[in-house]
Amino acid sequence: MTKFSVLTTALSDYCWKFEKGVIQIYCKIIGEGFPVLIIHGFYADHRSLFNSMENILSELPYKRFYIDLPGMGKSEAEKNINSMDDLLNYLLDFIEQNINGKFIIAAHSFGAYIAAGIAKFMPERISGLVMICPCIIPDRKERDLPKHEIEFGGFSSKTREFDLFRKDFVIHTETNFKRYLAEIYEAILITDNVFLKKIRLKGYGFSFEVYDDFYEFKTLFLLARNDSRVGYKDCLKIYENYKNASLHIFENCGHNPQIEKNIEFDLLVSNFFAAMPANA
To answer: Using CA atoms, how far apart are residues 21 and 5, in angstroms rounded to an integer?
Structure first.
């Protein structure tokens, strides 16, 4: 097991590192109460979910762990992480040492795929899952994807940033674009592309199936009809394995409903947490 120790503490920001000083893993920890681990997607960092989840949880008794995955955000890459299995093991070690007892996971895209891996190895510790546009099939060529379409908005910009924005968003407004720049694009600029390419070349998936077990904990699947990144139809095929699950499909929405459908998203996730028992 890789061991972690506190490197620095500044207000509510905690930076964890391996004892041997090989890499530093950044985790922003806020609040007190029942633990919630928030996991971002590929090429992103904790900022992609931070504003949305804080808008929901800031006044509730939850201790939020916003982690930057290795090679993304403020977390360094690790030369010994050569596959998704390795990356998952680092996350499992982090959880064992820093989160006591049961906890909830809220995760997006690639992060939701990791969340499924965590649930497979420690199902007795999971009280609930919020799966936002989850990656179900790692190999993009095998996914059932809708054609990418722009629904409405009218906003455009002749910039590289907008070219990236339009690939995942179907509602093109200036507000959505500004949130994309602050919450997603800035993370893309600082990712370790060499490290992430290595992970992708290894297949981008675990060596085992993560969606073949049956679970009883409360789960919320949030999908988007126009998500051309991971799609929504593949999730419908594994939905029944989660016996206490709810599923919602956002209409006229791409891969980031926390931005494009923020009001509806906040309501659904708020209801999920409101329905959780006091001790989860």
So the answer is: 10
Cα–Cα distance measured from residue 41 to residue 47, given in angstroms and rounded to the nearest whole number: 10
Question: Which residues in the chain come in under a pLDDT of 50?
Answer: 11-12, 19-20
Report the SS3 class of residue 105. strand
Distance (Å, whole) CA 86 – CA 81: 5
Q: Which two tokens mark 248?
A: 């919602």
| Rounded distance between C-alpha atoms, residue 18 and residue 161, angstroms | 35
Q: What is the pLDDT of residue 3?
A: 66
Query: Which structure tokens are listed for 83?
Result: 């596959």
Place of tokens 């920890």: 29
* Helices marked H in the chain: 47-57, 84-98, 110-121, 160-168, 174-180, 186-190, 193-201, 233-236, 257-260, 262-275
| Crossing angle (nearest 10°) for helices 262-275 and 47-57 | 60
What's residue 20's pLDDT? 44
Task: Give me the pLDDT at residue 11, please.
Answer: 44
Q: Tokens standing for 123? A: 């199902």
Q: Residue 122 class from Cβ within 10 Å (0-12 exposed, 13-18 middle, 19+ buried)?
A: middle
* Cα–Cα distance list, 267 to 39, 148, 258 (Å): 20, 26, 11
Instruction: Give DSSP secondary structure letters for 53-90.
Output: HHHHHTTSSEEEEEEPPTTSTTPPP-TT--SHHHHHHH
**What local confidence, expressed as pLDDT, does residue 153 receive?**
76
Residue with the two structure tokens 């095929």? 237
Q: Are 197 and 81 in contact (CB under 8 A)?
A: no
Is the overall model pTM greater than 0.90, yes or no? Answer: yes
